[in-house]
């Protein structure tokens, strides 16, 4: 299966692996940083506004500008694409982590403490599971955006399926652009569904009482 | 870091970069021109639709679906597709910009109006306000902060995407980035990236000002 992709760009599988490694790597990195930062903002509410302000400033930097400024530090590599996307993920996730943790009912927290849970155990086995749907809602938004934004990396030669778009202009082949768009959208849908599946598996207590989580709007 | 500062000094310190068709003022003017045009058009389309769907509560599922699927679309791919389809020009670039800017304004206007406390709406109606008055004098002011956030997201997206549009022979601050990458002239690349970052920070500042000016003090 190569969908008419010119061989010099690599095989379909290579591009797919490359694309997913960069997009999902950025999501994972963003999540790993957002959790402790969000926790900090819940524990020290005074830190929340400045952290949020920093996040929204970083979030507003155009991806292409972010990529090329990083070339000076990380060269033309996957890392150069992953870091900006991880930062955008972080900006989307922090409010969700904070909202999710704040939504843990005080009575639940006190029950856990009364049952002799240590603060760390309570965080891992009570607070985080309750916050999970809100955090995952943000992660889905960010991951879908990451998958579509990896393509911009093609402008610095690291775009995975984005290189199809560059080739479409150079070779004047409309089909390549269409293939690239369709493949990207399908990837986004599949990964989104997979994350929804993760949430379903991880929150068995929500299955009977249909819980709805609110999503925030993302960026491109 | 030092190399970056060196390139910045070189780009902004060269007087030739401050005049002519490729000069910094021209590039900034072009970029803000495109941004204003696209944002204005997107607002004129999305805002009334959001008001209507939010006020009547009809079409909410469609609004959410549009907003979610728009996030999965790769902007670079969309730009390339339209340029390969219809040649270089303002319209092929405006369409992807609108496709990106409409969903956040639409979704946030819808959610903002929808989310107004029903008690407030009832009170406004009880005071004898007409439907129009309820919408514009009670619901809209309360929803305004969220609508401004959506419009800011849209503006940030437009600034970022208009930067990428340079890859398909467009002007604006992306031009020096793309030209510099093609010629291995890192001074141009870094200079353009700095201009792009300045544009996005200006957008944030403008929206911070708008919030201060438009949002009722009781809501801040």
Can you describe this structure?
The complex is a heterodimer of chains A (220) and B (220). Chain A has a single domain, classed as MetI-like fold (Orthogonal Bundle), CATH 1.10.3720. The two termini of chain A are 29 Å apart. In chain A, helix 2 runs antiparallel to helix 4 and helix 3 packs across helix 4. The radius of gyration of chain A is 20 Å and the shape is elongated. Chain A is 73% helix and 0% strand. Chain A contains eight helices and no strands. Chain A is mostly helical and 220 residues long. Chain B has 220 residues and is mostly helical. Chain B has a single domain, classed as MetI-like (MetI-like fold, Orthogonal Bundle). Chain B has nine helices and no strands. The two termini of chain B are 39 Å apart. Chains A and B meet through helix 2, helix 3, helix 6, helix 7 and helix 8 of A and helix 1, helix 3, helix 4, helix 5 and helix 7 of B.
Features:
heterodimer, A: 220 residues, mainly alpha, MetI-like fold, 73% helix, elongated, B: 220 residues, 9 helices
Topology of this protein?
The complex is a heterodimer of chains A (220) and B (220).
Chain A lengths: L11 H32 L4 H13 L2 H12 L3 H25 L3 H9 L4 H31 L13 H9 L2 H29 L18
Helix pairs in contact in A: 1-4, 1-6, 2-4, 3-4, 4-6, 5-6, 6-8, 7-8
Chain B lengths: L1 H12 L10 H33 L3 H13 L2 H12 L3 H25 L3 H9 L4 H34 L9 H10 L2 H29 L6
Helix pairs in contact in B: 1-9, 2-5, 2-7, 3-5, 4-5, 5-7, 6-7, 7-9, 8-9
Could you write a compact summary of the structure shown?
The complex is a heterodimer of chains A (220) and B (220). Chain A is mainly alpha-helical and 220 residues long.
Name of the CATH first level of chain A: Mainly Alpha
Supply the number of structural domains of chain B: 1
Q: How much helical structure, as a percent, in the residues of chain B? A: over 70%
- Quaternary organisation: heterodimer
Q: Rounded to an integer, what's the Rg of chain B over CA atoms?
A: 21 Å
| Level-2 CATH architecture of chain B | Orthogonal Bundle
The CATH class name of chain B reads: Mainly Alpha
Number of strands of chain A: 0
What is the succession of H and E elements of chain B? HHHHHHHHH
Number of domains as seen in the coordinates of chain A: 1
The overall strand count of chain B is 0
Q: How far apart are the termini of chain B? A: 39 Å
């Amino acid at each position: 299966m190569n969908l008419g992709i010119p061989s010099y760009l690599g095989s379909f599988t290579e591009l797919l692996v490359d694309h997913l490694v960069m997009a999902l790597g950025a999501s994972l990195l963003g999540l790993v940083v957002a959790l402790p930062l969000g926790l900090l903002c819940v524990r020290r509410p005074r830190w929340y506004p400045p952290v949020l302000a920093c996040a929204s400033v970083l979030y507003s930097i155009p991806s292409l500008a972010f990529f090329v400024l990083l070339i000076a530090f990380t060269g033309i590599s996957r890392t150069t694409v992953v870091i900006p996307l991880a930062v955008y993920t972080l900006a989307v996730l922090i409010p969700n982590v904070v909202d999710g943790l704040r939504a843990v009912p005080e009575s639940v927290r006190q029950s856990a403490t009364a049952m002799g849970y240590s603060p760390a155990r309570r965080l891992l086995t009570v607070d985080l599971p309750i916050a999970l749907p809100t955090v995952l809602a943000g992660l889905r938004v960010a991951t879908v955006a990451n998958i579509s934004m990896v393509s911009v990396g093609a402008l610095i030669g690291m775009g995975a399926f984005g290189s199809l778009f560059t080739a479409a202009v150079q070779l004047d082949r409309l089909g390549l652009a269409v293939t690239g768009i369709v493949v990207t959208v399908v990837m986004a849908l599949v990964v989104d569904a997979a994350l929804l599946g993760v949430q379903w598996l991880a929150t068995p207590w929500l299955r009977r009482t249909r819980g709805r989580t609110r999503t925030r709007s993302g960026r491109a | 870091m030092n190399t970056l500062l060196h390139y910045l000094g070189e780009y902004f310190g060269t007087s030739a970069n401050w005049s002519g068709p490729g000069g910094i003022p021209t590039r900034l003017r072009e970029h803000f021109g495109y941004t204003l045009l696209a944002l204005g058009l997107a607002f004129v389309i999305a805002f009334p639709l959001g008001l209507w769907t939010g006020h009547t509560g009809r079409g909410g599922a469609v609004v959410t679906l549009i907003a979610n699927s728009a996030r999965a679309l790769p902007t670079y791919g969309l730009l390339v597709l339209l340029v390969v389809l219809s040649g270089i020009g303002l319209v092929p670039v405006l369409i992807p910009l609108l496709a990106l800017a409409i969903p956040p304004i639409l979704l946030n206007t819808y959610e903002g109006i929808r989310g107004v406390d029903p008690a407030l709406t009832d009170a406004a109606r009880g005071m004898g306000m007409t439907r129009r008055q309820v919408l514009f004098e009670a619901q809209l002011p309360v929803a305004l902060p969220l609508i401004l956030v959506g419009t800011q997201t849209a503006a940030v997206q437009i600034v970022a995407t208009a930067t990428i549009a340079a890859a398909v022979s467009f002007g604006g601050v992306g031009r020096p980035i793309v030209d510099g990458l093609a010629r291995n002239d890192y001074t141009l690349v870094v200079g353009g990236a700095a201009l792009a970052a300045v544009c996005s920070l200006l957008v944030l500042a403008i929206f911070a000002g708008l919030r201060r000016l438009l949002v009722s003090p009781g809501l801040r």
